[in-house]
Design brief:
- By secondary structure, the protein is mainly β.
- It has one domain (about 5-75).
- The chain is about 0% helix and about 50% strand.
- The protein contains no helices and 6 strands.
- The chain has a 6-stranded antiparallel β-sheet, with no helix packed on it.
- Strand 3 (about 30-35) and strand 4 (about 45-50) form a beta hairpin.
- The protein is globular.
Length: about 80
């Protein structure tokens, strides 16, 4: 993604048990990451930041300020 891209976010969908790309509010910027919560009864979520098998980490879901699910991306040409 670049700074000129536009993304539509479904702010009503923050269900991490259905894996997908989510917008995360980082206070001074927004990050988009692939998030997956294997078990809804546990507070951990897998955060992927790369397509490599080692490109991710586990973090507490409650520590993330999730804005919603990214549903569409527009790129300026």
């Amino acid at each position: 993604m670049t700074s000129s891209d536009f993304v539509i976010i479904d702010t009503a969908d923050c269900n991490l048990t259905k894996a997908g790309i989510f917008a995360i509010d980082m206070a001074d910027h927004v990050r988009f990451r692939f998030l997956e919560q294997p078990d809804a009864n546990e507070d951990h979520v897998f955060v992927r930041y790369s397509s490599s098998p080692d490109g991710g980490f586990t973090q507490s879901a409650s520590s993330l300020n999730i804005m919603g699910r990214a549903i569409w991306k527009f790129c300026l040409i």
